[in-house]
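The protein record filed here.
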Amino acid sequence: MENFFLTHQNEIIWTAVTLVAIVITRFIGAKTVRRIGTLSDIADARTLLITKYVYAVLNFLGIGAITFIWGVNFQDLGLLFSSIFAVIGVALFAQWSILSNVTSGVILFFSFPFKIGDHIKIMDKEILSETDEDKNIFVIEDIKAFHVHLRRNSGELITYPNNMMLQKGITLIETPVNSDDGSDSV
């Protein structure tokens, strides 16, 4: 056992440094995501979801770094990864919309100009009502990993995919606020 530590001393030290760096980076990443969530008034559930995504990416990078440190044969590793990615690629091609919605959910977290409770109008002819303009205004009830819950003023709940929120034009509707003098202001 002592011979193993002496033989692989550099690898052990660099592995320890990598693990410490991953832990510190995970802490900083989680704190940054929470700060963005707090400043943007984003729901805690969404913040937690994005934090899990950050952890997964950092863990994947850490495994890659440790694999590099220990000098794994890259030809064998390349064959293994190409086989795994071929299988995953075929599986994800069948599920491209799920992957698209998850990616859109991450994008919406960092750059979505709307938040839960906002009133919006989506420029999508499939959900717009030509007869009743009031039905075209939605309230954002919740933003999930795959979809957004929208409620029409008539009470109808619509589950709208995240990727469509990025593809369609969306108008933020400013709702009137009642003041003390009885007049409405925007």
Notes: The first strand starts at residue 119 and ends at 122.
